[in-house]
Amino acid sequence: MLCLSWISFSGTEIGASLLQAVVQDFDHLYKSPDCTEIGASLLQAVVQDFDHLYKSPDCHQVDNKRLDNHISFLVGLYQFKVLTHGLVYDILDLLIGTFDEKSIELILTILKTIGLSLRKDNAVRFKTSLLSIQSQANASSTLRDKPRTKFMLDILLAVKNNNVHKIPGYDTAAVVRMRTSLKFLVRPSCYVSELNISLQDLLKADEKGRWWIVGSAWSGADSDKPSSAPSTSAAPSQSAPSQFSAQIMELARKQRMNTDVRRNVFCVLTLIQTNLHQHQVHQQPPVNQPPVSSLRKSWSWRANSA
């Protein structure tokens, strides 16, 4: 009996602490004027989970709907202006590269829901994706004659020709109504900007950092440089840090100057401030030495008395 009462009391404490933490986090996020960080964290979690599932052979079964749910959720984020068309096109290129039955179903979901919007946002990239899908469909002898593939190609042509009537179930009225309703729920001071993040940036966020979050460190600029670059172009970036002392370079590292340009500018400004300070110190007379004006007065008095 004592054991059960102790467990019940502990459970109440845990639940109260959890509820307090959730309410405090909600209050902090609600008072934040920028909601971009919330959407970025959610988007990163969904995309990384999608990539993990996409690499699993079990999820490529037609009956498995886990990938469909992730694609539908990402499409919804695109419809509500949380992310831009760049990430959707990156995912579309990933699906085109695999091009199995599951990928065709996911491509069909994207085209039926936001195909016209993607074409409007970036017509050049849409044309490239269209040609890639058609070439993949014609190259596969097993998928070419399947009804699902033919239906996807028909939807693709309907999106290309801007023919809304040939897209089954296409209706943007519900999305427009929800956007209008959300405008009354979101505070006027809270703004959400569209996240222009690529697929590779989200997948490698734990390695390179999150450049889309203000104040977050990012090492993508250094790691994205090709290793096979010529020695002439790499010479300035290697010789530039050697002209500064180790103490200044350590100070630049503590200030998160993660590129050569930032380090050089920081070191130059630091040296300028140091030289100006030393110049001002040398201009001032020592503490135990009288000023020059008093010395001149004493010399003139001695000359007159003589």
From TrEMBL:
GO terms for molecular function: RNA binding. Pfam families: MIF4G (PF02854). Residues 295-306 have a biased composition (Polar residues). InterPro entries: ARM-type_fold, CWC22_splicing_factor, MIF4G-like_typ-3. The lineage of its organism: Eukaryota, Metazoa, Ecdysozoa, Arthropoda, Hexapoda. This is Nucleolar MIF4G domain-containing protein 1 homolog. SUPFAM superfamilies: ARM repeat. GO terms for biological process: ribosomal small subunit biogenesis. GO terms for cellular component: nucleolus. Residues 219-241, 280-306 are annotated as: Disordered. Residues 16-163 form the MIF4G domain. Residues 226-241, 280-292 have a biased composition (Low complexity). It comes from Diaphorina citri.
